[in-house]
Amino acid sequence: MQQRTIGTRKVSAIGLGGMPMSIEGRPDEERSIRTIHAALDAGVTFIDTADAYHRDADEVGHNESLIAKALSSWAGGGSDVLVATKGGHLRPGDGSWTLNGRPDHLEAAAKASLARLGGDAIGLYQFHRPDPDVPYAESVGALADLLDEGVIEMAGISNADPAQIREAQEVLGGRLVSVQNQFSPAFRSSTPELELCAELGIAFLPWSPLGGISKAGELGSRHDAFADVARAHDVSPQQVALAWELALAPVVVPIPGASRPESIRDSVRAVDLELSPDEVERLSAASAD
Fold first, then answer.
1. Which of 234, 242, 244 is nearest to 263 (CA)?
2. Collapsed DSSP state (helix, strand, coil) of residue 127
3. What average pLDDT does this structure show over 44-67?
């Protein structure tokens, strides 16, 4: 599969977002593990998760544990798979989300994530979302400490604006390797962040790259240009969306969520879809509507 770079690691150009396998409406564990195995069999070497990807209050880290189990049971071994997890965003168990960007929380959360994922260090650890009650530099400073301690190999941030990207890069002494923001045909507000990442050579990881769990299946009906290009290439509109995102910059690594093997297999085929410059331009103009 086509590869891209996150920090010092080469990874598949399409990653797997693990959240749908652990929150409300999740499938049973057997199907989830089959989904992860299908991604790995298709050449995916980048998996995204977070300690907050769980449903009930007493199962923090559900998705991390699920991914660890799937990797350990996969015939391929999984040693070349980069798992990225996040901390600083919590779910109390009632469907809501809360924030905790305190350095002591992030350091404890990272070590708990490492215990669930296994290994000597977390491949990529990202600060999940800014906490307005904690100075941003203090939260990101915790990532610098985790790097220095060897708890994590690489550091990233999520849901950040351009000023926060630059601040994080400064706090980390040039060691920021990724930014994970929402981006899709329906959500282009993170275009400035994508462009800044391309300028700085930092990986940009679009979350919900197909428009979200509940809307991914409607992508073609909601965006005529994507449906038209899909028909021209005899592929799904979802493949077109991912191929378009890949064409925007060489630092883009979309991470579509999946809860069925068929979904991730379809997404992975986007790396082989070559869009013409005119098609990319047309899709960019259409997605701005």
1. 242
2. strand
3. 97
Residues 20-47: what's their mean pLDDT?
97
Residue numbers annotated as active site: 53
**Whether the predicted model's global pTM rises above the 0.85 cut:** yes
Nearest to 162 by CA among 188, 191, 138, 196: 196
Tokens of 135: 């100075």
Output the pLDDT for position 250: 98
3-class secondary structure, 3: strand
Low-confidence winner among 91-100, 143-152, 266-275 (lowest mean pLDDT): 91-100
Q: Domain extents for the chain?
A: 3-287
Q: State the pLDDT at residue 29.
A: 97
Q: Residue 87 belongs to what H/E stretch?
A: strand 82-87
> How many whole angstroms separate alpha carbon 72 and alpha carbon 78?
7
Q: Determine the pLDDT at residue 200.
A: 97
Amino acid, res. 194: L
Strand 89-90 versus strand 98-99 pairing type? antiparallel
CA dist., res. 31 & res. 37, Å (int): 10
State the Cα torsion 204-125-7-47 to the nearest 10°: -70
Grouping H, G, I as helix, E, B as strand and the rest as coil, residue 119 is coil
| Residue 277: both structure tokens together | 């410059």
Rounded Cα–Cα distance for residues 126 and 124 (Å): 7
CATH of range 3-287; options 3.20.20.100, 3.40.50.620, 3.40.50.300, 2.50.20.10: 3.20.20.100
